[in-house]
Amino acid sequence: xxxxxxxxxxxxxxxxxxxxxxxxxxxxxxxxxxxxxxxxxxxxxxxxxxxxxxxxxxxxxxxxxxxxxxxxxxxxxxxxxxxxxxxxxxxxxxxxxxxxxxxxxxxxxxxxxxxxxxxxxxxxxxxxxxxxxxxxxxxxxxxxxxxxxxxxxxxxxxxxxxxxxxxxxxxxxxxxxxxxxxxxxxxxxxxxxxxxxxxxxxxxxxxxxxxxxxxxxxxxxxxxxxxxxxxxxxxxxxxxxxxxxxxxxxxxxxxxxxxxxxxxxxxxxxxxxxxxxxxxxxxxxxxxxxxxxxxxxxxxxxxxxxxxxxxxxxxxxxxxxxxxxxxxxxxxxxxxxxxxxxxxxxxxxxxxxxxxxxxxxxxxxxxxxxxxxxxxxxxxxxxxxxxxxxxxxxxxxxxxxxxxxxxxxxxxxxxxxxxxxxxxx
Length: 425
Ligand SMILES: *Cc1c(COP(=O)(O)O)cnc(C)c1O
Description:
D-amino Acid Aminotransferase, Chain A, domain 1; binds pyridoxal-5'-phosphate; disordered N terminus; globular; D-amino Acid Aminotransferase, Chain A, domain 2; eight-stranded antiparallel beta sheet; 20 strands; 3 domains; alpha+beta
């Protein structure tokens, strides 16, 4: 017979999120055996897993899991019959979700050797993973990430937004970073499986979305600089609300004219992990001065707009909406691409071109786009000590209109004539 402790390790991790959720007697009795899912809160190194005999155990959600051999610990894997009570909602405070990690039930994992093909991906309980200290991703930054969202519709079904675009972008990034990548089908199927397995974490309509984070990394050991001998594709998810602490209020940007995010010939155009540690210094300095984020200029002329740390930028003047052209140093955002199409469908003229920083001075509106930020209005931009304000409060009319069309499409509230959404039920 299984002990309570063993069962507790297979219970959903939200038990450790807040003391008030330590209500389950088996969970509290077994607290000292719980895997360390949340290192920020649990500093000591508890046993990472309990050795289970290969056996089928009922998980707390009524799904069945069994242990499999894997180099990753906490490696309990879903069997085929997990779909039972997917319609239930997780027991968390759904109002006021921010953009932080809430651990969910399952993550997806798939491996491949250098020169091989990805196959046999599987869901596992969400938890820590184990890597060789010499893993390519840890030593040389051979890694990519993606980001997309799932929304819950009023009828309970779930919508993904253009997941095949994320798959294609990961494949382009993988080519640049000398990594094998899942096929578009493998990627999209893996996203669907992961979302359905974590369905109870998709916020109710209007409360937010499930952020989906696919990772691709060189997980094999290398010492000399070279592509890793093995790769891991992983997907984890977290329910999220607003990205900026401002919520839906306009953000305030500062133009950075010394540090740069990307260089011609570099990797700015792909979502490789190293691009993001590199912007922390400028971002931290900006936040310390009260700004929301940094707006980068091109590194050659220091004159043309590029983008913000993790979102694209648009400038509105009359009926014309301009955004920096994609030329290798700007991340080709899927939200950017979608907003360009939405804006044209709404009768705006959209220009992808070099946008000189001076144009910020007499713009009517500025807004940012990205999966995480959706469409964020910019309230002011500060450049060389001069602050240029936009609007009085809240969204500008154009940003509001585009935000409204895009989000209603993503949430299934209007007809998807573009065929952008993928429905899961
Ligand atoms: C991810 C990202 C974006 C936005 O891309 P979306 O596909 O719209 O989410 C923009 N800029 C950078 C630097 C990014 O990493």
